[in-house]
Amino acid sequence: MNGAVVKPKSHRNLSALQQRMHKQLQSAQFRMLNESMYSTTGEESSRMMRDNPHLFSIYHSGYSQQVKRWPKNPLDDIITFLSSQKSSLRIADMGCGEARLARQVPQQNVKSFDLVAANADVIACDIAHVPLPDSSIDVVVFCLSLMGTNYGDFLSEARRILVPNGLVLVVEVASRFDQHDSESFVTGVKALGFRNDVHHPFVKSGKTQAKKSARSRRGKKKRDTHKAAPSQVENKVDTAAFFLRFAFTSTKSKTTQTTGTVDKSKLPKLAACVYKKR
Ligand code: SAH
After folding, report:
1. Ligand 1 centre and the CA of 253: distance in Å?
2. What is the pLDDT of residues 159-180, one digit of tens each?
3. Is 145 in the pocket of ligand 1 (CB under 6 A)?
4. Secondary structure, 3-state, 213-256
5. Sheet holding 137-143, edge to edge
6. Which one in 3, 207, 232, 268 has a CA-CA gap of 20 to 30 Å to 87?
């Protein structure tokens, strides 16, 4: 991939055609990077980004283009939820991107981790190994960041840094899970030393949103029969159904951690989140 990379340069002297080609090339590079990060381990992605830090800005400008197409960014719901919690919380944002969470919940102590430090708030590392002591964090956030094939190592690391009864919030794109994957995902995460909190307010508010949008979709379908062409309706992304939310609480006992026999074999292989060519 190194040879194929076009470094971002000033666009000022480019013709309209060159600008269009540059945009297409960046979009292709984003999709390649994205696919590679879903099909390798965090360690390999870490090495790739360390050797070519500018790839990270290509990734994130592509990612923010994608986010603009969603009616809602799932990180906003995490921010809303955490803003309503007590200010003494210590939070780890694993795979934080540009660390917007830390900026938007300034009352809490947020540590932000990603492969590359996009700004001074971010600590560059592979989230399988974050520079934090055991039992030092109250909430761990994974917002669309369980990308590596070894994502079980990221969750295990969350278990290590969390206090007993600490909380993990996960949001992932629903299409990464096939019919039975979300059940085996939950089983797998539980085997790492967590309880699945299906009644957690963060999970419940996601379900309420999904129900509301299903209702409005049904109503809209009826109203749209005489108005919009079917493709226009189908092309709308339904955010509530598009993402899955999970809340896990770390169990009190750390026996699995201390004996070193954490069982990651129950975790399913999740599909890559592939973005369409635009
Ligand atoms: N959580 C952010 C960014 C989501 S994009 C948000 O919601 O806006 C997913 C992020 O996870 C990317 O920035 C990617 O670099 C990061 N990531 C994926 N695997 C990682 C790893 N092994 N270590 C650190 N960061 C990782």
Report:
1. 29
2. 999 999 999 999 999 999 998 8
3. yes
4. HHHHHHHHHHHHCCCCCHHHHHCCCCHHHHEEEEEEEECCCCHH
5. 122-124, 109-114, 90-94, 137-143, 162-173, 243-250, 194-196
6. 207
The DSSP H or E segment spanning 276 is: none
- Give, using CA atoms, the residue closest to atom 23 of ligand 1: 126
Task: With CA atoms as reference, report the closest residue to 239 among 38, 67, 104.
Answer: 67
SS3 45: helix
Q: Is any atom of ligand 1 closer than 6 Å to the C-beta of 34?
A: no
Tens digits of residue pLDDT in 42-57: 999 999 999 998 899 9
Q: How far is 20 from 241, CA to CA, in rounded Å?
A: 33
Q: Is 98 in the pocket of ligand 1 (CB under 6 A)?
A: no
Question: Is 97 touching ligand 1 by the criterion CB < 6 Å?
Answer: yes
